[in-house]
Write a structure and sequence with these properties.
With 370 residues, the chain is α+β, with helices and mostly antiparallel strands. Helix content is 66%, strand content 10%. The chain has twelve helices and eight strands.
Length: 370
């Protein structure tokens, strides 16, 4: 019930997708323990693990999803684009091509689910393999200067697009004006594309933040419900204290007298101390009514959340996806001029350090040799 209400809350009309899911990979240790002979990926669909192979074709992906998700008759796999006209992958498309970026699953022709693929390893240098020499040169260049990761991504993407544009016009004779014209064209294209991507990412972050808030609200509502139920624990403590008072008073002044009740009251006090000490040993908190109530709530909270779905994993996945999308948002918010300015600053800083080092070495030589 909780899980259904969560998805119903998140599937707002202004979004053209039902949910955003995260494609996950097994660690090397997990793969070894499971004896996996090839890479297997998975994502959570309504709190159920759905497994897919990293190799093969889109057809095998479609078959795997139909087998593992109930009531799914058709599966479409689409490239995530910045407009509503999504491009569908053919059944024969290799999974390596599909997994190179985020994708969209369309179930039964009506339900769209965005699958984020690179949450655990966002790109550092996003150059295609057509330019291995340039990629290596950039890698070496980035090792020499200290710049933020998003700067590396933006510059790499710009160089990739620039080289692609130059390759389209191999037959032309290049001069300074033509190169400047191509650079301006690439910058304009990247600006338009980045703006469109930023709008898509903003919508996805807004969706996930809504889901994050809903998860927090569900947890708060369960805590309040448990606090109401666990009030009986406090009543039991009150009753135990009142019974002690009544017993000691009745035994002292009505039945036995103080000579008999003195060791009894001493043992009752020791028992209370043992209970309080045991509570402190288990929780490292003082033995107070509030802490006793909180401990009783926490004891049942995880169990109640796990009855519907794995709350901790769900919240962790949402947080990781938001962090990944915010990184992409930063990348698309940066323009090439800002990146060049950052790189120039890093180069100047490095040159200043080298100059200071040379001056220090020169000073040492003058001290020891003169």
């Amino acid at each position: 019930m909780l899980l259904k209400s969560l998805f119903r809350f998140c599937s707002l009309k202004r979004y053209n997708f039902q949910d955003i899911l995260m494609l996950q990979r097994f660690s090397q240790e997990e793969s070894k323990n499971l004896n996996l002979k090839q890479e297997v990926l998975f994502f959570y669909f309504h709190s159920k693990k759905v497994f897919i192979k990293a190799e093969g074709t889109v057809l095998e992906l479609q078959q795997a999803i139909r087998k593992q998700i109930d009531d799914v008759k058709s599966v479409g796999v689409y490239q995530q684009t910045t407009n509503d006209e999504q491009v569908e992958y053919a059944s024969s498309t290799p999974m390596q091509l599909v997994l190179a970026e985020d994708m969209v699953l369309r179930l039964n022709q009506t339900e769209n689910y965005i699958i984020l693929n690179k949450v655990d390893n966002p790109p550092v240098i996003d150059l295609i393999d057509n330019y291995p020499i340039t990629q290596h040169a950039l890698h070496e260049y980035f090792q020499e200067i200290d710049v933020p990761q998003r700067t590396k991504v933006v510059l790499s993407n710009f160089i990739q697009k620039l080289l692609s544009e130059i390759e389209k016009h191999k037959e032309l004779t290049y001069d300074k004006d033509l190169i400047m014209l191509i650079i301006k064209k690439v910058i304009m294209k990247l600006g338009i594309y980045s703006q469109a991507q930023k709008q898509v990412i903003d919508e996805q972050i807004s969706f996930l933040e809504g889901k994050q808030n809903r998860l927090a609200h569900l947890k708060d509502s369960i805590i309040k419900e448990l606090e109401m139920k666990e009030q009986t624990t406090l009543y039991q403590i009150y009753f135990y204290i009142l019974m002690q008072i009544a017993f000691t008073q009745y035994g002292t002044y009505v039945v036995w007298g103080w000579d008999v009740m003195e060791p009894v009251t001493f043992m009752l006090g020791v028992t209370d101390m043992i209970i309080a000490y045991q509570f402190w040993m288990k929780t490292t908190k003082a033995y107070t009514f509030g802490n006793v109530l909180q401990n009783a709530v926490n004891k049942h909270l995880s169990k109640r959340l796990a009855e519907q779905f794995n709350y901790a994993d769900e919240l962790n996945d949402v947080n990781r996806m938001i962090e990944y999308l915010k990184f992409k948002q930063m990348v698309y918010s940066s323009d090439i001029y800002e990146v060049i300015s950052v790189i120039e600053g890093a180069i100047e800083e490095k040159q200043a350090k080298l100059q200071a080092q040379e001056e220090e070495e020169e000073q040492l030589r003058s001290i020891f040799y003169h």
